[in-house]
Amino acid sequence: MNTFDFAIVGAGIAGASLAAELSATGATVLLLEAEDRPGYHSTGRSAAFWEECYGGPDIVPLTLASGRYLREGGFLTQRGALYIGRTSDTHAIDRFEQRFEGTGVTIQQLDRQALEQRLPGLRPDWTRAIWEPACADIDVGALHHHYLGKAKRGSVELVCRARIVDASRRDGQWTLISAAGESWTAGTIINAAGAWADEFAQLAGARPVGIQPLRRTVVQLRVAPQVAPDLPLVLDIGGGFYFKPESGRVWLSPHDEEPSEPCDAAPEELAVAQAIDRFESVVDWQVEAVERKWAGLRSFAPDRRPVYGWDPDVEGLGWFAGQGGFGIQTSPAAARLAAQLLTGASGDDLTVGIDPSPYLASRFG
């Protein structure tokens, strides 16, 4: 039985990106996935975009640092984003702008006239907006495959259908056992289990940090008139919805965050109805059909910051979890930073401007 330097539990975007980064250091890496294929859960269900303000000021350094990697890799398609509000939301618009002052994001306020030029069919009561020109769609599938391919070229061993049911450490080595009875050994295990991160932590003898899975619903609508492909991502300044064009259709979410057990998430009809009701209050487009609907789980630590680095109590246990809805857009810098934390390497041109302290797992010690 081979012994690996690192065994990563979870092969979504988090596990795949970290496996790619660690293999580049010459380490031997095992990547374990409970499902039949990598990316079945949150990664495969994301309507992802690279949006500078997404996740708040604490996440901006990771997002901005990742932008160049994503652009140069061809994973981004320019779109732009509008945070829109009614007249009664004027203070919320102002606070949003003030909140991101000095963070390096590029945003500006728009009045009703400028807003109409970017979003035709807008109903009269929406009068204010924040414009973020740099926002772009992410080709999530291509990015995930990029990392899996990079990991494979680095001799990472990927094993699917490997749901871990036991993790024990003896003489400086971990032994992991799957539900099917397979076993592996590694010097370090890394918790990249997404919605199952706290469950796996307990399995490994660590304290859970309070990572909570939250269900997010998305529906695909056919509307009339057909939506222009270059319209921006549109988000409610109050957090009630977002929507964007996708292949002649609209992808719409009620921006729900319903607490959930770790599971194969499914959309609820109430969330779908809320999404459509909110959408129809924004634009005068006719909803002709709901063509698809799906849900995924976004997992947050209590402070809504990601969890990277060494567990404060359990030797040989690393964390790469709690990445909410920003895990894909921050994956280049996040994976590089986590690999540096776990190997003791210095920062490089991708991470040199990032202070890791807000993200360390040890903050929960």
Any overview of this molecule?
A hairpin with a 6-residue loop joins strand 19 and strand 20. The protein starts with a strand and ends in a 22-residue tail after the last helix. The model has no long low-confidence stretch (mean pLDDT 95). With 365 residues, it is α+β, with helices and mostly antiparallel strands. The protein is globular and about 70 Å long. It is built from eight helices and 20 strands. Strands 5, 6, 7, 13, 14, 15, 16, 17 and 18 form a nine-stranded mixed sheet that branches. Strands 1, 2, 9, 10, 11, 12, 19 and 20 form an eight-stranded mixed sheet that branches. Strands 3-8-4 form a three-stranded antiparallel sheet.
Structural class estimated from helices and strands: alpha+beta
The stretches of 5 or more residues where confidence is low (pLDDT under 50) are: none
How would you sum up the global shape?
globular
Secondary structure: number of strands: 20
Distance between the termini: 34 Å
List SSEs in N-to-C order.
Answer: EHEEHEEHEHEEHEEEEHEEEEEHEEEH
**For the CA atoms, what is the radius of gyration?**
21 Å
Write the layout of secondary structure elements.
Blueprint: E1 3-9, H1 13-23, E2 29-32, E3 49-50, H2 60-72, E4 76-78, E5 81-86, H3 90-99, E6 108-110, H4 112-118, E7 126-132, E8 136-138, H5 140-153, E9 157-159, E10 164-170, E11 173-178, E12 183-191, H6 197-203, E13 212-224, E14 233-236, E15 242-246, E16 249-253, E17 258-259, H7 269-280, E18 286-300, E19 307-310, E20 317-321, H8 331-343
Parallel strand pairs: 1-2, 1-12, 2-9, 5-14, 12-20
Antiparallel strand pairs: 3-8, 4-8, 5-7, 6-7, 10-11, 11-12, 13-16, 13-17, 13-18, 14-15, 15-16, 19-20
